[in-house]
Design a protein that fits this description.
The complex is a heterodimer of chains A (940) and B (418). Chain A is α+β, with helices and mostly antiparallel strands. Chain A is 46% helix and 13% strand. Chain A contains 38 helices and 20 strands. The longest helix of chain A has 25 residues, at 626-650. The radius of gyration of chain A is 40 Å and the shape is extended. The chains are: A alpha+beta (940), B alpha+beta (418).
Chain lengths: 940, 418
């Protein structure tokens, strides 16, 4: 290779490149180029990027063999790691981590750690790739690497997600706990991750879900309704209907669109996820249930040009799909297969016919007749395979088929395939009573040809002889002894052993023991019919679509799919604190789009006159029918009476003119306005401020997560901030996430979700010009942009000063401004406070007189027990449950977010559906409004 | 994941090897060669072959086996899909993926494989991204590079890697902006002896060649989108818009790509454009067999059936065939017993036929298997399912692109039993 060395030493890049190209071509052909190592490694710092890349290729290939020389190049990569160009940083790390030299492990570790916090997501992705490389080089580094994995798992970019999960799977697949906090993020990012990452993530999440959620196919599960850690309340253990964890549902929902992927591996991954995790009823979307495949029966018909393995698989599918209704079509199809030129396939087809015959009793005779016809086929293989299958079928009902047995006995003269001959002999022996005349004759013929037979045939001849000796010793005694004598001197010791054993067993001598008496029972015992089994059975314990599943053997690194847990582990481990920053995370799950009642509050210019209009709104359609109108009117009345009572109780304090004005409006007036709304829908929509969407939510969901006090993501109400029509394609919804707002604890966290329904990017989305009541403050989000069809969630903080005044501001995009406002229900102005029973009593004692509001009420029909009351109250207000000794009382406590005033709520139930509601709060306005809201919630 | 890759040609030579982790000796391929020997046809080699320490997963494309070496658990489909992607990438770069093309471009092949996998896990497989990292070889570029000493390797991270549309490179510029779409449908069918359809399905694809400046946002709508039964998309297609409106909305990759593949199920009636009349018979005791084949158009919606090719595997007992075609040429290979007849275009006025006799081994009994007839054909300007593109709109860019759409129907796995 001297010429190559010369070229590499030259000053010209073009010569170096030419040399490197030739060297790489050598490597590609598998030729050894290791002696060039010193000459090549010198060029690692070459300016020409292609030369450099090819040197990298060479280095990675030979570094393991030339460790000392390889170390010379390390400093170049260390320099590369600091390069301002992200591609160079990434490739330096790639090569450095691919050099399998243990001495540089600490350098690698350092480089990986640094790259994991690199600004460029591409470099971070490379860091994730480097983790398994280092782990395989030095497993001792596992703990440190897990730290890096943990850090990278929290990464929010789609580029990193797939690679870090890959690293997780290779290094620490059992550390399920690292996934908790990232679970929802991974689910939500999934659709945007590149396809290879999707496969890895889906497979990992399948395993995760199996450890965290309950089996959706067990109808009733035992769950703790709620557990009080203070142990003051008895733990109720109740059977309740299964309710799917919202996170479980999230996974199923977010993977479903990927069934449309162009990548078969992704489709398979989703299919296996549904197979292992979905309720039976939903598995149909992957057409897994056999009934679902039936319409596609004909798609599995076999072409002569299919590769053999495909033919066998299709046969298997057809056999499994066969039922009483379609069996005749399938059998007709099978008959054409038997004429195929591919003999292995013909044999498999005959076996398939046999399996259909065993599975479907109605066609057993038809199949049997078909198979018997095959016995006259010219091809011996076909005949042999048919004999074997017929033998198995006959064993199921031999008495009806003595003619077939006779027919087969005749075949013994012509058929040469040993397995078939053995099968026939076994059949005749087993059912010699059905063919009493033919059987001894067959034995006679066999005795003649014994020495020329194959071993399996010889064994069956001995068997036949033994059985005949026991049933018809008169005719066959001599023949048997002749056969046994031949066998005694056979070359095969199995046959010699068998002969000796059988002679002892059947021929009574003075020495023969007790067994002799039972010889007949031993030989002619009723034998269970064989089960014709699929060659694909017995592999369901492997994860579908895995290598292990295909091979039906555990491959290295296979992670067992765990069984569902008996009871679900704490779902709150997946809760994440939503940071005050843009994240692609969507923690709020909106309920089904049903009809909801809207509360429209329109502002008219600056006069700030508020009036309430209630409308019925359906998310999908704007035209509401007559019935909807009626319901809307009813709602108006409710709201009306509610606001009236409100004004009565706080009229002295109400200084807000607008409020009073709205109170004074007559009912007819409201109706008129409502009609106006109906007529001029668009104008009103353009002005409305907020929509309260009373989605009917699932009771069970609430109870199942109740003990956490923090409202679970599944039942947070979404309010509309900007309708997509008004927003010209930009739809904005908001909700009160009930999470603490970390930058300022005196602010209420409002989670806003933007959806861009247009085809163009919305840029520079931000808040401008907040118009707030004095004292109120708002903490805006950092400016964001939205790609077409993208949804982004941000969190803002608003200090409402413990009032239900709306916070008005403008939402600005790069082209437009929209006036919007956020109005909190009174229940959202508080956060849960944790008190003991004694503390509660003590604090209640301090808030008597003016600060206590008592109200009697009749509980609604559905408020049948404590749990419903608890869920209704906590849905209305962000309060926590306070333990209580009496089962007639429910207590709740909270603090207002802004000023931290205590809010105590007590609901005492009485016989006959009556109840008393007590609210103790220093802020009387809050107290009054809260009483009103809770009353309404409980009397529904 | 993927440990190593071996490329094996039809005669069983390993002509390229690449390792992403420690080197695996090429002797591991002996297990593969054993499997090849056992298989009667090249297609019958099992795709997954377990060996004591490794597992070999292979695909056969263009008469080259791509053999991946696996050491631990990985979904087999993952590897198979990846290998196909490798072949597609080679085809995209070199026009064809033959042994000669791979050998001629061995350095580019190596650079590509280096970028596509890192430590055995896919890194960059998107054609638009790869083309920015490693420029495809062209004659012009080769000449320029030799003179100027510039390289085929990009120095910057492809912009696509970090964007929300990773499949499209930025800064695309064309003087002629054009977008072409080919709707290609293949009929998979089995026709029985009597000429009735046993099963027929349509597998369709829409292949696109989009050369548009900037960041165009396209929507493609159909007159009858409900026809599409089982669809799979290029990642650029917005799934939600399809779900809601049955419209394909996407920011296309630059260049050639497969936008959509779909399936029209056997539940719908599929029009069969040709019929075959046949009489292939052997008589007991005679060393001659009769062979008669006539083709004719059936439901072609007035379009011509072209590029017709008939092939059939005759029974082993047939020694030779003495046939005369009314048009086109036929060949019979006495070793493989493969008969093929290149018919060309079907003229409805004068139906093509192939008639004559087959000679059998004397004394041998008549073969009891019936040959099947495989058909290939093309029909231009017809999508047999009736699928029609309604319109193509472009948003986000100002210029007017040139738009074109082409329909074609082909025979897929089209088989007639006799």
């Amino acid at each position: 290779h001297d010429d190559l060395k010369e070229m590499l030493d030259s000053n010209k890049d073009s010569l170096k490149l030419e040399a490197m190209k030739r060297i790489v071509a050598m490597i590609a052909r598998g030729k050894n180029a290791s002696d060039l190592f010193p000459a090549v490694v010198k060029n690692v710092a070459c300016k020409n990027i292609e030369v450099k890349k090819l040197v990298y290729v060479y280095l990675v290939r030979y570094a393991e063999e030339q460790q000392d020389l390889a170390l010379l190049s390390i400093s170049t990569f260390q320099r590369g790691l600091k390069d301002p160009n992200q591609l160079i940083r990434a490739s330096a790390l790639r090569v450095l981590s691919s050099i399998r030299v243990t001495i540089i492990v600490p350098i690698m570790m350092l480089a990986i750690k640094e790259a994991a916090s690199d600004m460029s997501p591409y470099v971070r992705k490379t860091a994730a790739h480097a983790i398994p490389k280092l782990h395989s080089l030095d497993p001792e580094q596992k703990d440190q690497l897990i730290e890096v994995i943990e850090k990278l798992l929290a990464d929010k970019t789609t580029l990193v997600a797939g690679s870090v999960v890959m690293a997780f799977e290779e290094v620490c697949p059992d550390r399920i706990d690292l996934i908790h906090k990232n679970y929802r993020k991974l689910c939500n990012l999934l659709i945007d991750v590149e396809e290879w990452g999707q496969v890895v993530i889906i497979n990992m999440l399948t395993r995760y879900a199996r450890t965290q959620f309950l089996n959706p196919n067990v109808n009733v599960s035992i769950t703790h309704m709620y557990e009080d850690e203070k142990a003051e309340v008895t733990t109720l253990e109740k059977r309740k209907p299964y309710v799917m964890d919202p996170d479980h549902r999230l996974l199923l929902r977010n993977t479903k669109p990927l069934l449309q992927s162009r990548n078969a591996a992704v489709v398979m991954a989703v299919a296996q996820l549904y197979f292992h995790l979905a309720p039976k009823a939903e598995v149909g979307i992957i057409a897994k249930a056999l009934g679902m495949f039936e319409p596609y029966l004909k798609s599995f018909y076999i072409r002569s040009t299919d590769p053999t393995q495909i033919k066998i698989l299709k046969l298997e599918v057809l056999t499994n799909l066969a039922n009483e209704a379609n069996i005749s079509t399938i059998l007709r199809e099978f008959q054409t297969y038997i004429k195929s030129m591919d003999k292995d396939f013909v044999a498999a087809s005959i076996q398939a016919i046999g399996r259909c015959a065993t599975n479907i009793g109605e066609v057993r005779d038809t199949c049997l007749n078909g198979l018997v016809q095959l016995l006259s086929n010219r091809d011996e293989l076909v005949v042999a395979e048919s004999v074997v299958v017929i033998k198995k079928l006959l064993q199921m009902q031999p008495e009806q088929h003595s003619d077939i047995i006779k027919h087969m006995a005749k075949l013994i003269d012509n058929i040469q395939v040993p397995m078939a001959r053995a099968s026939i002999l076994w059949l005749i022996g087993e059912y010699c009573e059905h063919v009493p005349k033919i059987a001894p004759d067959v034995l006679r013929k066999m005795a003649k040809s014994f020495t020329n037979e194959e071993d399996i045939v010889k064994l069956q001849i001995i068997n036949l002889a033994a059985k005949l000796y026991l049933t018809n010793s008169k005719q066959t005694k001599l023949l048997t002894q002749y056969v046994l004598n031949l066998a005694k001197y056979d070359q095969n010791y199995d046959i010699r052993d068998r002969a000796r054993f059988i002679r002892q067993l059947i021929v009574p001598t003075d020495k023969s023991g007790a067994l002799n008496k039972y010889a007949k029972k031993l030989f002619l015992a009723l034998k269970p019919a064989p089960v014709l089994e699929s060659p694909f059975k017995d592999r369901d314990h492997f994860q579908l679509g895995s290598l292990s599943h295909l091979l039906n053997a555990k491959a290295a690194g296979y992670q067992e799919l765990p069984d569902w847990p008996e009871s679900a582990p704490d779902p709150s481990v997946r809760n994440v604190e939503v940071k005050d920053s843009v994240c692609a995370e969507r923690t709020v799950l909106t309920g089904p789009e049903g009809a909801g009642v809207l509360l429209l509050q329109t502002t008219r210019g600056s006069s700030n006159i508020l009036f309430h209009v209630l409308l019925l709104h359906s998310h999908s359609e704007q035209s509401s029918g007559a019935e909807n109108r009626k319901r809307g009117r009813k709602a108006v009345k409710n709201q009306k009476s509610a606001s009236e009572s409100e004004s009565e109780s706080e009229s002295s304090e109400s200084e807000d003119e607008s409020e009073e004005e709205s109170e004074e409006e007559s009912e007819s007036d409201t109706d008129v306005r409502k009609k106006k709304v109906g007529l001029d829908w668009n104008r009103i929509l353009a002005n409305y401020v907020c929509i309260i969407n009373f989605d009917t939510f699932d009771m069970n969901k609430i109870t199942s997560v109740f003990s956490q006090t923090i409202a679970p993501s599944g039942l947070i109400k979404m309010y509309e901030l900007l309708h997509r029509i008004t927003g010209e394609g930009l739809a904005v919804e908001y909700c009160f996430s009930r999470q603490p707002f970390s930058p300022d604890p005196n602010m209420v966290a409002v989670q806003i979700q933007f959806t861009n329904n247009t085809n163009s990017e919305t840029k520079n989305l931000h808040i401008e010009d907040p118009r707030l009541q004095s004292g109120m403050r708002i903490r805006e989000f950092a400016e964001i942009g939205l790609q077409p069809s993208e949804s982004v969630t941000v969190v803002i903080g608003i200090d409402f000063c413990d009032s239900t005044q709306a916070a008005n501001f403008q939402l600005c995009t790069h082209t437009r401004k929209f006036f919007v406002s956020v109005q909190p229900p009174v229940g959202e102005l508080m956060t849960p406070a944790f008190l003991t029973e004694n503390d509660f009593k003590k604090e209640q004692g301090k808030l008597m007189g003016m600060n206590e509001i008592l109200e009697k009420l009749t509980l609604g029909e559905k408020c049948v027990n404590e749990h419903v009351i608890v869920e209704r109250v906590t849905a209305t207000a962000n309060l926590s449950r306070v333990p209580c000794g009496s089962d007639k009382e429910c207590r709740f406590a909270g603090k207002t977010v802004s000023s931290g005033c205590l809010v105590l709520v007590t609901v005492t139930t009485k016989e006959g559906g009556g109840a008393q509601l007590t609210v103790n709060c220093e802020k009387m306005v809050i107290g009054t409004m809260l009483v009103k809201d809770i009353l309404q919630a409980l009397s529904q | 994941m993927i440990h190593s890759l071996f490329l094996v040609n039809a005669s069983g030579d390993i002509f390229l090897e690449k390792h992403w982790k420690s080197v695996v000796s090429r002797s591991v391929c002996d297990y593969f060669f054993e499997a090849v020997e056992r298989a009667t046809e090249p297609e019958n080699v099992p795709p997954v072959i377990p060996t004591p320490h490794h597992c070999l997963i292979n695909v056969l494309r263009q008469r080259i086996y791509f053999v991946a070496v696996i050491q631990s658990e990985v979904p087999p489909l993952f590897v198979i899909e990846f290998l196909h992607r490798v072949v597609d990438t080679f085809q995209d770069y070199f026009g064809v993926c033959t042994e000669a093309a791979v050998k001629d471009n061995v350095v580019v092949v190596y650079e590509l494989l280096e970028e596509m996998l890192d430590n055995g896990f896919p890194l960059a497989t998107e054609s638009n991204i790869l083309k920015e990292l490693i420029k495809p070889p062209t004659i012009l570029r080769t000449v320029v590079n030799t003179i100027t000493g510039s390289t085929n390797v990009g120095e910057q991270l492809p912009t696509g890697q970090l964007s929300v549309v990773p499949w499209r490179r930025t800064g695309v510029k064309y003087t002629n902006n054009e977008a072409y779409f080919d709707v290609v449908e293949e009929i998979d069918a089995i026709i029985d002896k009597s000429g009735s359809t046993i099963t027929a399905e349509i597998q369709g694809v829409i292949d696109a060649c989009v050369k548009l400046t900037g960041m165009p946002d396209l929507t493609l709508s159909f007159m009858n989108p409900r026809l599409l039964d089982d669809v799979s998309f290029h990642p650029c297609v917005r799934f939600k818009r399809w779900e809601a409106e049955r419209i394909l909305s996407f920011v296309p990759p630059d260049g050639n790509f497969r936008l959509l593949s779909y399936h029209v199920s056997s539940q719908n009636l599929v029009a069969i454009p040709v019929y075959v009349k046949h009489n292939i018979s052997f008589r007991e005791g005679s060393s001659q067999g009769r062979f008669e084949l006539t083709l004719g158009p059936k439901q072609t919606m007035g379009k011509a059936v072209e590029s017709v090719l008939v092939s059939s595997q005759l029974p082993r007992g047939v020694l030779n065939a003495n046939l005369s075609p009314s048009q086109g040429t036929y060949t019979f290979d006495p070793v493989t017993k493969l008969l093929s007849w290149d018919v060309g275009k079907i003229n409805p006025q004068k139906l093509p036929s192939l008639k004559g006799s087959m000679s059998l081994q004397t004394g041998a009994s008549k073969p009891d298997e019936n040959p099947t007839i495989n058909l290939q054909f093309k029909i231009q300007q017809l999508a047999v399912s009736g699928l029609k593109v309604n319109r193509l709109d472009m948003y986000g860019e100002k210029y007017k692109p040139f738009k074109g759409i082409k329909y074609m129907t082909k025979a897929g796995k089209f088989q007639v039993r006799t």
